[in-house]
User: Fold this.
Amino acid sequence: MLNQAQSIISVCQRLYNKNMLAAADGNVSCRLADGNILITPSGVSKANVKPEDMALLTIEGEVIKGKPSSESLMHLQVYQKCDQAKAVVHAHPPHAIAWSVAFPDLKELPSTCLSEVILAAGSIPFADYARPGTADMGKVLLPHLPDCRLLILSRHGALSWGEDLNEAAMGMERLEHSAQILYLAQSMQQLTHLPQSEVEALKQMRKKIGPRTL
Ligand SMILES: [Zn+2]
Assistant:
């Protein structure tokens, strides 16, 4: 368990250094071999988490050790619905969140402007807003699971899951990097789109890649 705790801490530091985990925001978890979930503690800056601070939960949400945040509900929902999920990252990436605030009617991050969105993820949808601390935080993810591994949580943050911690962490970086490029393009002038035939070709390539986030 110490190895997994240390891997979670490296992901926290990576995302903190990229401005995606302000104050005590966000949480990172992984599924252990025995099925239990190891997750960062509530109310602690993710830049300073230590292995002994980690909380341990059953997949049903029973606390075995430590103090998980109410946001662990989102992590549990992913593990319950996605057999392949071995790691979940929840962060507050600024550009991704800003898209949900500025364009509340968008169903997904514009994907026809950048090949990287289609090739790396297929699409990056927005999950509905849910009030912090409520069971709705888990429920709003359901329409997108298990198909989507990258989600923007409207007016709140983003969630990425993967078959290991690296996939989940890289997915979060991909999501925010794409949101930032699109924001810059929109600010400079306006978004422009790839030709429809190119979008279709990229979608075919994505099908061959499989479900992993790149
Ligand atoms: Zn959050």
